[in-house]
Structure prediction request, 198 residues.
Amino acid sequence: MGKISVDNWNRTFPKYPVTVEDKGWVYGVWYCGTSWTKVHLHGQYPPGFAKRALALFPEDKDVLHAPSGTLEGDKLPDGHVTMDLIRDAARNPQHLGDCGDMPFPDGSFDLILSDPPYTKKDSEIYGTPPFPMGRFVNESHRILRPGGHLGVLHTYYPSYKRKKFKLVGLIAVVTGFLRATRMFSIFERREDLSDVDN
Prediction:
């Protein structure tokens, strides 16, 4: 398990505007254009998003994608695990499970990446109940190793308990004109409470 590496990200994507780390925060704007991209599932990852997100964590080996949507586990690096609530023509996760009650032991992962349904209407399109964001964040804390990271792509950054997580990154994700900008929020699972303000 490693720290966030903005240097690795900027080396990996030298033609893109830099992602910045300053005073313990990672921030930037990623343009992930969707022109001519075939849609396999409503709300799927923007093109290139997963590669960009993973480039921030080059040392992380045990990575959970939940819900995993159209990601295919056999096409991901060793150690990457996919989990979703449904298996169908578009979704073929390695594990079926509820993000509010995940079927993994404590401390299983270095990194969790998530692009959940954003609204109740989105959930209906996916054929799932509304996404349990609060329980998902708590479960992520349980199955992450201390110092591990949770990255969530959403229209906002989710609420969290400062005793459990530290917010360490906010990156705007733009997919094209007249399209909503999303936020990639990065949280670090606390190892101790020494740096929590009282």
Observations:
- The mean pLDDT is 87.
- Residues 24 and 139 are 25 Å apart (CA to CA).
- The longest strand covers residues 144-154.
- The first helix runs from residue 6 to 12.
